[in-house]
Amino acid sequence: MFRVMLYSQWKWSRPIVLLGSVAGFALPIVSLQGARGGESSPLEPAELLRTVQSWGVLYPVLAATLGLLVAIATWTPDHRGRHVHALVLPVPRWRYVLLRFGAGAALLAAPIIAVTAGALLATWSAKIPAGLQGYPATLAVRFALAVLVAFSVFFAVSAGTARTAGIILALIGGVILVQILAHVATVDLDLLAKLQLVVLNWPGPLAIFAGRWMLIDV
Amino acid sequence: MSNAIEIERLGYRAGRAFEIKDLDLHVPRGAIYGFLGPNGCGKTTTIRLLLGLLRPLAGRITVLGDAVPRDAARILARVGFVPEQPHLDPILTVRETLAFHAAFYPTWDWPWAERLRGQFQLQDGQPFGRLSKGQKGKLMMLLALAQRPELLVLDEPTDGLDPVVRRDVLSALLEYVAQRQATVFISSHLVHELERFCDWIGVMDQGRLIVELPMERFKNGIKRLRIDGTPATPDNLPFVLLAREPANGTGETWLVREWEPQMAAFFDAYGVSLHQVIDLDLEEGFVELLRTFRGPRA
Fold this sequence. Notes:
CATH class of the largest domain in chain B: Alpha Beta
Number of helices of chain A: 9
Number of domains of chain A: 1
Structural class of chain B: alpha/beta
Low-confidence stretches of chain B: none
Mean pLDDT of chain B: 86
Mean pLDDT of chain A: 87
Distance between the termini of chain A: 47 Å
Radius of gyration of chain A: 21 Å
Number of domains of chain B: 2
Radius of gyration of chain B: 22 Å
Strand content of chain B: 25-35%
CATH topology of the largest domain in chain B: Rossmann fold
Number of helices of chain B: 10
CATH superfamily of the largest domain in chain B: P-loop containing nucleotide triphosphate hydrolases
Order of helices and strands of chain B: EEEHEEHEHHHEHEHEEHEEEHEH
Largest interface: A-B, 20 and 24 residues
Strand order of the largest sheet of chain B: 6-7-8-3-9-10
Shape of chain A: flat
Shape of chain B: elongated
Order of helices and strands of chain A: HHHHHHEHHHE
Structural class of chain A: mainly alpha
Oligomer: heterodimer
CATH architecture of the largest domain in chain B: 3-Layer(aba) Sandwich
Number of strands of chain B: 14
């Protein structure tokens, strides 16, 4: 069952997975381009850290994009068939959802491996100035967690109906509206900042995306 | 005989406009049960309820001895379903679609699936989304049959198909039923099609089951009677008078149900002469039944 589910999802997700893998492999290598300048002009540690940090913004963006697109692709065949085929298969619904989730997560292994390979290759081939160290394994694990968190969140949202999506959008809209009204009424209420604190700070659900993503660090 | 499908006092509501109320339905094991009704009368909703796709508000549904929706997964392993609209993954090819489906059914019969694929002239490499309507209909029937089900639930399986495809699909179905003595629950508004092979008939309209009878009783029991005069309606009718309307100036035409030939004597005793007893085919019977259900004129 899992094999056919994986194959079906591969057919829907392969452009995303392939492009994501190429991007994931290239990102660490490109980010350390400056450290590969040869003996003539190796980067200073501070400059290298700044470069690595600026490229590091792209890892969570890539993770979130992959999670979103693979989650959408995961449910596309069922949405198109109004879930009729899924619902008449002789498996409990929770098991069907697990099969879909498992297949999507398995497909995300490719970009995760690509980031790992790219990070290892980049740090191995770079001239890292004294006092700095490469963290390819840490970066890869963090990327893997971020991809899986993004996939899980979007998988859950995509599994719902248009009504569910509407409720989520209404909630977000409500928060923004309250914030605007508070601002107009000069009430000391920073709802968005509080929300950001809850969601993006540890142990918030999206904490993995926050902070610096450094392939090279002190 | 036990029933393959039993529905007792089923209730369901979809919005304000549509309701299924107190629906009782019994499909005997081994029967080919034609589920008739006009478009929008609740046939597809009833099918979705009995497969566990929708949750009823009231009543009890038993399929192959198990309760729906509680045992839906176990029941679905023994049921082949052809929906009204094809709903399969459009980018999977015919071969991939078969493999996907087969993985979920332990009773899947690959040799027979291959035979049917050849018989239906379906190309392995064609994506489902690019198949014609007829090819999609054939593939849906193939999937339902190759899992060797005890019960086939078919929702308008030949609607919109050309006569050749329709014949191919129905031949495969009847061959399977003859081999396996499976039960078939087939919904349609194509009355003449069901007349050829169904042995039970249920007629639904506006969310209610109007009648449920063996096909022969249904066909033989509905008659149009031509009588002289316009007598008052007697209290002790031995048949069900569905409608009466003036005919040829002095006489009347009565539409009756549950007619038996010996009932002609009733008119003699009543002092009315019965001129003619006209047989109705299933389609005429069905139309008259719906007319009288929607607006009784008796």
